[in-house]
Amino acid sequence: MSKTNNYIFLGLKIIAWLIFVGLSIEAGGLIVNFFFSLYKPEFVQNLYQKLDLGEMYNQSKSAFYGVYSFILVISFLKAYLFYLVINLVSNFNLSKPFNTYVSNHITQISYYTFSIGLISYIAQQFAKNLMHRGYVTDNLNQFWEDSQAFILMAAIVYIIAAIFKKGIDIQNENDLTV
Q1: Which residues are bridge partners to 47 per DSSP?
Q2: Which of 15, 51, 57, 71 could make an SS bond with 64 (beta carbons 3.0 to 4.6 A apart)?
Q3: What is the pLDDT along the chain (178 residues), one digit of tens a residue?
Q4: What is d(CA 107, CA 161) in angstroms, rounded to the nearest whole number?
Q5: What DSSP line would sit under 39-55, residue for residue?
Q6: In angstroms, rounded to a whole number, what is the distance separating the alpha carbons of residues 35 and 16?
Q7: Are 143 and 70 in contact (CB under 8 A)?
Q8: Vertex 106, ends 70 and 97: CA angle to 5°?
Q9: What is the pTM of this model?
């Protein structure tokens, strides 16, 4: 393995950690705001990232809790996805990449990526339904606008997981014949 590849891999580890910290801060901020808004409903107008759901809260609390539940679930899944990525890159052996641990982690990453895409798509449709009923949902698109990208990425990661699984099978066969 060349030194350039090691530096690139180290850079990817650092980027994964930075993204994980950012997503964890976002998820933590959203959940703190959620519990704070339960006790002080007037705070709903000033949620995390200048999210104003005060009008929706006043119109229907069930719509507010439904939308906010989608936001919380998606943000937690994104943070957990990068937790899995950090675990993978921290325990990845570049000299012997084909092992069961890596294959299982890549498969898990594809499942969680697909879950994020699917839940984001459902949330997008839920917000469109609310918009047709007169709710203002334009400011919510930032949380689920990339649902198709996550579904496509899940398919690609699943293919990579299948390749790793086949590589492990071939490696085990070679080990048995020698």
Answers
A1: 51
A2: 57
A3: 577 778 888 898 999 999 999 999 999 988 988 888 888 877 777 677 777 777 888 888 888 899 989 999 999 999 999 999 999 988 887 777 788 888 999 999 999 999 999 999 999 999 999 888 888 777 788 888 889 999 999 999 999 999 989 988 888 888 877 6
A4: 5
A5: H-GGGGGGBGGGB--HH
A6: 28
A7: yes
A8: 155
A9: 0.87
